[in-house]
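User: Hello! I'm new to structural biology and keep hearing that structure can be predicted from sequence alone. Could you demonstrate with RCC1-like domain-containing protein? Please show me the input and the output so I can see what each looks like.

Assistant: Of course. The first part below is the input, the amino acid sequence of RCC1-like domain-containing protein. The second part is the output, the predicted structure written as tokens.
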Amino acid sequence: MGNGTTTDSLLPVRVSGLTGVRAIADSGVTGYALRRDGTVWAWGYNAEGNLGNGTTTDSSVPVQVSGLTGVAAIAGSGNTAYALRRDGTVWAWGGNFFDGLGPLPAPTLFTSVPIQVSGLTGVTAIAGGGLSAYVLRSDGTVWAWGGNNVGQLGNGHGGVGSRTPIPAQVSGLTGVTIIAAGPYTAYAVRSDGTLWAWGQNWNGQLGIGTISIPGLDVTLPVQVSGLTGVTAIAGGDENGYAVRSDGTLWAWGGNSHGQLGNGTIGADVPVPTQVPGLTGVTAVGAGSGIGYAITSFFAAHGQPQGR
């Protein structure tokens, strides 16, 4: 938890020594924070160089990731971390499970300091899945690399052991403005406000009205049913979320923990359904079996409030 201890807590605790934080991310059991000065800080597990500070020693307090400045965004994927610099380059460190570090000489098991992911320029956004990574480039195309066992790279291929260390373009997607990923499913919003998805669909998390059995995953992007005007997205373990321009929140996929927010637990829902009771939603996030939303609205007394 980054508070200098290894004691679990049922209540929020403040991460030690961090101010001016503008973004956070995690990969497995390591936490990351991006500060306004463009530096990245990390804490937690470090056996595979996950802290990016040149060591493999765990830390219960934040330490600065070595050599990274001018960072605009961060993401985590399994045991690998990523940073997007303001110059449009992408950097990675940590474990190299399923080639998440990009094209490197074999066998590279991990790196404890950031290295540049080769072949990528003009990147404007990054996202991390369970075994793979995604970037959005300034020309509106999406590129992916890493594990592809359920078609999550969106290149028309997949299968047990499938992977690629070289970033390759996701097929058939142009005009993309937003990307997000769950562990084995990826999502992209196009400039027309439509949402597209690919990868694992065992719980209906593609939102296309069907549930796929293992081995019959969706290896090319397909349009999520019935959603227009999408302004924000998030991917959970088994489900997806979308915010629409009218401030409503929609969810689909697995519901084993009530994460669809529809008052039920258990039944998967393979098409987007509105989360009741939420209006004025501006942002959405997802964890393991849980969803989060930020709302902004004017109460009766005229003062802006949030949730």
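User: So the tokens describe the shape?

Assistant: Right, they're a compact way of writing down the 3D structure. Reading them back into a model, for example: The two ends are 23 Å apart (CA to CA).
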